[in-house]
Amino acid sequence: MTLGQDWLSWSLMLLSLACDSHAFYVPGVAPINFHQNDPVEIKAVKLTSSRTQLPYEYYSLPFCQPSKITYKAENLGEVLRGDRIVNTPFQVLMNSEKKCEVLCSQSNKPVTLTVEQSRLVAERITEDYYVHLIADNLPVATRLELYSSREGDDKKKEKDVQFEHGYRLGFTDVNKIYLHNHLSFILYYHREDLEEDQEHTYRVVRFEVIPQSIRLEDIKADEKSSCTLPEGTSSSPQEIDPTKENQLYFTYSVHWEESDIKWASRWDTYLTMSDVQIHWFSIINSVVVVFFLSGILSMIIIRTLRKDIANYNKEDDIEDTMEESGWKLVHGDVFRPPQYPMILSSLLGSGIQLFCMILIVIFVAMLGMLSPSSRGALMTTACFLFMFMGVFGGFSAGRLYRTLKGHRWKKGAFCTATLYPGVVFGICFVLNCFIWGKHSSGAVPFPTMVALLCMWFGISLPLVYLGYYFGFRKQPYDNPVRTNQIPRQIPEQRWYMNRFVGILMAGILPFGAMFIELFFIFSAIWENQFYYLFGFLFLVFIILVVSCSQISIVMVYFQLCAEDYRWWWRNFLVSGGSAFYVLVYAIFYFVNKLDIVEFIPSLLYFGYTALMVLSFWLLTGTIGFYAAYMFVRKIYAAVKID
C-alpha cells in the first residue's frame, strides 16, 4: 500500500509535465527552410474510412498521376498502419499563389472516367472515405467552423473552429453522388528572422484544404493548364454517375498566408483537438478511485491483519483464535504448486514482457520522442521493444517455474516465447487474409510478414531462452512456510466466491479509473484521430497499476479467509477482470459510435479488439498476480508457524 501511494505521489508530481507533453518536439527532426519559389512537395498518404476500417493507397482511385510515381521508403510502423506515401502531380512553390491549375490536362481535354472507375469512385464516396495528403511532413486538415449561440442571446454566436484530418473524397445529396474535384490549398508559413543582407527563409507551419465540387461546364480551362473558376455559389457540383462514363477536370489552387506560429509549435493545431478538461476529469476521477481503494486496503491491513497476526502469535488460547480467521489454517497449502505451472509461468512471462514494453513506450512518448511527425515510430518502437523485453519475460517466467517445482525448462522457455506471440500472429494472419482479399493497403505485405517472423524467431525467441535459462538457474522465490504433503480439504464456498463474480467485482474499479482515457484511445485507433496526450496516459497507467495491485490483494485476502488456497490461477484471472469491461465497452463503442455494417470491417474490429482484450488481461493479470504473491509471502512470514 505504501509503495502504491509513493508511486501515486511521484506520478502526481509529474502532472505539469503531463499537461505540457505535446509542447515537446521529437529530437533529431530538423526543420526544412524554404526560399522564395522553392518547390514544396505535396505527397499522398492513403485513403481512410471509419465505416470500413480498410485503408487504400492514393492511386487505387483514378486520380491524376505524375510522370513518374515514387513511393517513399517506409518503416515497420507505417507499413502496419497501411500508409503508402507517394508523390503527386501538385506543383506548389513557396509563397507563390496559384489561382487555378488543371491537373493531367492534355490539350485542354477533361479527364474521362470509365464506367468501372466511376463505380469505384462512387463506392468510395458513399463509404465516407477521406484523402490524406502531407506537405513538409505536415498532414492536411479541413477547417470546420461551428457556430454556437449563447444562452438567452440567439443573436450573439460564438465561432468554434475545429479541424478534421484529411478531406472528404466527396458527398452525397438526394441519392446523387458528387466528387470533390477542386482543392483549394491554404498553406501557412513562418518567416524566419535573419541577419541583414541574407535572403528570407520560410517554414511551413500549417496545411489546410477547402475541397470543392465544380462541374465540368463551369470550369474554363486554357491550353496552358490554367483555369477560371465560377464566382460565388453559382456553380453546380460535379456529379459522378456510376452507371456511365464521366468527364471532369481535376483542379487545384494555392494560397499562402503568413503565420506567427513557430515551427516547433506547428503540430499544436492537430494535437489540441481533444478536450483537455475531460482528461483532467479523468485523472481526478482515477485518483479518487485509488484513494478509495487505499482506504479499504489500509483498513484491512492495519486493523484486520495486525489483529490476526497478533492473535496468531500469542501462545495461549490458540485454538479459539484459529477459529476466528481462516487464512492461517491454509498455511500448509497456500504455496502448493497449481495445475499447469508451465502455462501459468509462460503467460506471466508474456505479461512482464508487455508491462515493460508499454511502460517504456508511454514514458518515451510522454517525453515527446514519439511525436506523430515521426510517422509510424510508435508502432515500430513497440514491436522492437516487445522483442527485446523477451529477456525480462523469460527471466521472470523461468524463476517462477522453478519456484513452482517445474523441471522442463527448455519446454517452458519455448512455451513462453511462442504461446502469446503465436496467438497474436495467428489472429493477425487470418485477418490479414481478409484484408488481402479487399486489396487494401492495410494488408501487411508478405516480405514484411517474413521479416516479423524473422524478428520473432531470430530476436525474441533467443532472448526469452537466455532470460529463462538464467531465471531457472537463479534461487527460486523463498516461500516463508513449508507445504504439507497431503492437501487440505477445501470447505464449500459461498456464491460470491465464484470465479466469475470475482472477475466482475475486481474489474470494475480499475476499469473505472481508466475508461475515459479509453474513449480517446479508441477514437485514435478507429476514427483516424491523433492521440498524443501521453502525459495523461502515463498517469492513468500508474493509477491502473496501483488499483490492480490493491484490488488483487483484497481479493486474495478474502479467498484465503474462506480457506481456499487455490489462489494462483484464480488471482491471475480475477486480476485481469477489467479486460472483461474493456470488451463490454468495445461492443458499446461499436454499436453507438461507429457506423460499420459490413462483415469484413466488423470482423477486423472484433478481431483486433480480441487482441487488445487478451493483451490487457495479460497485463493487468500479471500486475495483480505479483502484487498478491508479494502480499501472501509477507503475511505468512509475519506469523509464527509451529
TrEMBL record:
Q: Name one GO biological process term.
A: protein localization to membrane
Name a GO CC annotation attached to this entry.
Answer: membrane
Question: Which keywords, in A-to-Z order, does the entry hold?
Answer: Golgi apparatus, Membrane, Signal, Transmembrane, Transmembrane helix
Where does the sequence pass through the membrane? Answer: 280-302, 346-370, 376-401, 413-437, 449-472, 500-526, 532-560, 572-591, 603-632
Signal peptide positions (record): 1-23
Q: Does the keyword Cell division apply?
A: no
Domain of life of the native organism: Eukaryota
The record describes its membrane topology as: Multi-pass membrane protein
Which InterPro entries does this entry report, sorted A to Z? EMP70 (IPR004240)
Q: Where in the cell does this protein reside? A: Golgi apparatus; Membrane
Give the coiled coil ranges.
none
Could you confirm whether the keyword Nucleotide-binding appears in this record?
no
- Please provide an example of a Pfam family that matches this protein in its UniProt record: EMP70
PANTHER family given in the database record? TRANSMEMBRANE 9 SUPERFAMILY MEMBER 4, TRANSMEMBRANE 9 SUPERFAMILY PROTEIN
Please state which protein family the record places this protein in.
Answer: Belongs to the nonaspanin (TM9SF) (TC 9.A.2) family.
Task: Please give the name of this protein.
Answer: Transmembrane 9 superfamily member
Q: What is the lineage of its organism?
A: Eukaryota, Metazoa, Chordata, Craniata, Vertebrata
